[in-house]
Design brief:
CATH class: Alpha Beta
CATH architecture: 2-Layer Sandwich
Order of helices and strands: EHEEHEH
Number of strands: 4
Structural class: alpha+beta
Largest sheet: 2 strands, antiparallel
CATH topology: Alpha-Beta Plaits
Length: 92
């Protein structure tokens, strides 16, 4: 399964920690915001990519699987949003 880096540009605060940890796939633009290399994360850089994601103080960087796995994750998360997802009600 191929994994790709995703960036939420609205959440990103331009700290630059991701580019320091993964310069092979992330560069910074002239304002200090990350620019991601296109394509999947090479297997040899997967561990460092996960580390860069974990180090993002704004939680703006994520790593996602291929389109098929993204669809299955979405389906699974929708299945959790049933009546039991809300707060428990006490019987009186």
């Amino acid at each position: 399964m191929s994994r790709v880096l995703r960036l939420n540009p609205v959440a990103c605060a331009g700290h630059g920690a991701c580019a320091e940890l993964l310069p092979e796939l992330i560069s910074l633009d002239e304002w200090g915001y990350p620019v991601l290399a296109p394509g999947p994360v090479p297997a040899g850089l997967a561990r460092r990519a996960r580390r860069a994601v974990a180090a993002c103080p704004a939680l703006a960087l994520t790593i996602a699987g291929s389109a098929d796995s993204a669809h299955s994750e979405e389906t699974q998360s929708q299945g959790r949003a049933g009546p039991s997802a809300g707060p428990a009600r006490l019987r009186t």
